Amino acid sequence: MLIETPHGPARAHRHSAERPRAALVLGHGAGGGVAAPDLVAVTAAAVEDGISVALVEQPYRVAGRRSAAPARQLDAAWIAVVGALFGRADAGGGDAPFAGLPLIAGGRSSGARVACRTAAATDAAGVLCLAFPLQPGSRAGKDEPPPSRLPELEAVTVPVLVVQGARDRFGMPPAAPGRTVVEVRGDHALRGDRAAVVAAVRGWLTELL
């Protein structure tokens, strides 16, 4: 499903549950795509549990570019995609396959950050973060470390699940009221224990819904 956004068309790969009770919308990492193993595994589990899923390709990926767009463009495109999928008033006409369903927003890495920053604007009921990149990598020629991205997590006012690899080079976010953090084997790719990733997501979604 191609969806027009303020920064070019995005693509939503839809996976529909037979009788959906909610919809999970997931974004990809900055340099990756929607075929990331953790996204694929979580999608299959969610559909099996009665939750429809859309895996969203940001416009820069649809256009064939590898370098991620600025955060403000990612956020604006994401809000437009959610509006189209759920039939929000400001999204115009057309097919709205998730109209009337609760939204769980999320993604891996950069996609998780987008979901956090836009949770209020999209009226998300919860946010799922796979491999949240808490601490940016050091930049050449800079003496001070870049600022933590923890404020993006802390700004979310709905329940959050963070599934993080124990050896993630971007750090381990802390748990907090309303924010569950599950540590699994592996690194930022979350390939070390896919079953543990799926189990964490399934348990959280069951409680959330």
Automatic annotation (TrEMBL):
<dbReference type="InterPro" id="IPR029058">
    <property type="entry name" value="AB_hydrolase_fold"/>
</dbReference>
<feature type="domain" description="KANL3/Tex30 alpha/beta hydrolase-like">
    <location>
        <begin position="21"/>
        <end position="172"/>
    </location>
</feature>
<protein>
    <submittedName>
        <fullName>Alpha/beta family hydrolase</fullName>
    </submittedName>
</protein>
<dbReference type="InterPro" id="IPR046879">
    <property type="entry name" value="KANL3/Tex30_Abhydrolase"/>
</dbReference>
<dbReference type="InterPro" id="IPR026555">
    <property type="entry name" value="NSL3/Tex30"/>
</dbReference>
<keyword id="KW-0378">Hydrolase</keyword>
<dbReference type="Pfam" id="PF20408">
    <property type="entry name" value="Abhydrolase_11"/>
</dbReference>
<dbReference type="GO" id="GO:0016787">
    <property type="term" value="F:hydrolase activity"/>
</dbReference>
